[in-house]
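Tutorial sheet, problem 5. The two components below are modelled jointly, 782 residues in total.
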Amino acid sequence: MFESLADRLGATLSSLTGKSRLTEENIQGTLREVRLALLEADVALSVAKDFVEQVSIRAVGQEVSSSLSPGQVFVKIVNEELVRIMGEAEGLNLNTQPPAIILLAGLQGAGKTTSAAKLAYWLKKREKKSVMVVSADVYRPAAIDQLRTLAAEAEVTFCESSPDQKPLDIVRSAVDQAKKQFADVLIVDTAGRLHVDEAMMAEIKQLHDVLSPAETLFVVDSMTGQDAANTAQSFNEVLPLTGVILTKTDGDARGGAALSVRSITGKPIKFMAVGETIDALDAFYPDRIAGRILGMGDVLSLIEEAEQKIDKKKAEKLARKIKKGKKFDLEDFRDQIQQMNNMGGITGMLDKLPGMGKAAQAAQDKMSDNMFGQMEAIINSMTPGERHYPDSINGSRKKRIAGGSGTQIQDINRLLKQHKQMQKMMKKLTKKGGMANMMRGMGGMMQSPGGGMPRG
Amino acid sequence: MTSNVADEAEDSKPGLFSRMRSGLSKTRSRFVDGIGRAFLGEKEIDDDLLEQIEATLLTSDVGVEATREVITNLTQKIARRALNDSRALFDSLKSELVGLLAASESPLVIDSSKKPFVIVMVGVNGAGKTTSIGKLANLLKQQGKTVMLAAGDTFRAAAVEQLSVWGDRLDLPVISQGNGADSASVIFDAMAAARSRDIDVLIADTAGRLQNKKNLMDELSKINRVLARQDPDAPHAVLLALDAGTGQNAISQAREFQSAVNVTGLILTKLDGTAKGGVIFAIARQLRLPIHFVGVGEKLDDMRAFSAQQFVDALFDDDEFSDVQN
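Model answer (structure tokens):
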């Protein structure tokens, strides 16, 4: 989501390269561009101003005398400032007598209910906690039903509640239930509310007083504009927030709200929601995001994601196979395609590779992720024999495969060519660090100039 | 044979103006404060004043480009000495802003020769689609139209139930096939049902989706395609629900949804908070999309026809201002 900001800063910073030194004059233009880029990315005006001021103060001064090039110096300063504002990576602090209570609060439509379920799943899966969820949203129609369904999907305990009950009664009985069932964590979903609605803000304050939660998380939509500053401020004044969940980050919003909320509340962003599935919740690593804004890529998250999502057994099987000197056939190629799909497709991965911010944009324009679907369909339309011996695929076989997969002959040719490239890469694989090499290989395949990737 | 949904809704209800004013009075907005100070504190026009106007426009999500344009126009007028004092500047600013939105001030028109008149509601997750459907259905029902709802959000947990609750409250039929069903087929069937029951208006809900998800946007186009089989003009209206709190991404939302499903109009939701929805200036200018309604609360009748004058007035509305404005 941050690639647009990365692009913008990238352009302004490259205009600085070649300058012999940073002076107040020659950074003025760049600073103004940085400020505009931040504003266009929906960073709150006051936050953008402060940021630019800090960068300016630091840029014109002792920093100039360093041995780096002015461009590098400037990037370093901007990066350091971003990292400083985004703060340290922080996890949940659930060290309390169980059940540790997590209270979610936010505006309507921010994504609280979905986040409640994702968080429950995350705690269950990663932290091996027994989790109970409860909805105190008696206002929005079917809000409780929604959480019930999601809780079932996440396979966590759902504490029943009803729109006839008072939110206060709901949470009191939920705490009792959680104690009785020895739940480690109780996640309390609440109704969306406007920070200017005094009655509703009083209500959540009351819920907070009764629950004394270990974590009070403010859920905020990453597409939010300037108002993120107002709402974060108001919620922070009423509730002692302990952190933030940033939602809908899989969109193409530039996500300036993250910077605003963090800088105004001073509270760490603990999670970001990255998709519609129950497992689409990532820990938020501020330093990585800062790096991503500058186009340094997010290699660390990519590797972590690869570890999580790549089917280890299949990967090991493939590694063994290749070590034995067996060739990489189309069946293996199909496995690779499926693995990549699991990781959010090409754009999802490109997004995280260094210097690929623009490439991700270009990729998105030119090819869609469902081309993986097409490639898979082509391979599925082959006989097992053809998959093992791709060389046997002659003209008439191609015609049949194209018909069977609903594609063109050119698509088949392209796929076979890509497979050849992959095969070559596989041969280069060394014994150690197979997976890392494979990842690099995939990146290489995507980058290859005119690399015969089908145009979407 | 057309009727204007908005006009009839305006009677006997607190207007947008007063609703937004009551919202504003709870937390004095930075916009109003800023402009208020700007106009009352100083009578002479100087760079500080312009800078302050720029800042207040930016904090209302008007966006860098649209703000720059407004300021440039003001600067030119000042240079021509067309504006003598802050009062004249203020009037000029307001008319400039109203001018940007005037073309988008266009009511939702229900063509009663189309039966059923099919409205498809689209938008990103959490924009307020289902709530807007409830409010719109209420409005149409009050005008004596028969309305049916189609539960086309078959993806999100309990979305069908949410729409059904609105159906129960309004005593309207809701066509659904439960979660996981094909959205296009639900809406297609609902249209057939509406036709056989002689229903005036069918409003179809769809799942929220982020505009950069190509496959999900394709799914929306499919809804349009299959509906056209029953009536080449269907859907007769595609309304995009847009959260007023959204920043510049709203432009991308409007653009992408428009290109995928030919959006015919906007509903600006959640305008009862402190968010100003200033991004609609850019949307109005770039995409020339009509803005039909604004959502100003959680109750059934908390929807108003969009009025450019009222929208801009509400931005500037403040007691301190009345002296300057009148």
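Marking note: Chain B has two domains: 15-104+314-325, 108-306. Full credit if you identified this.
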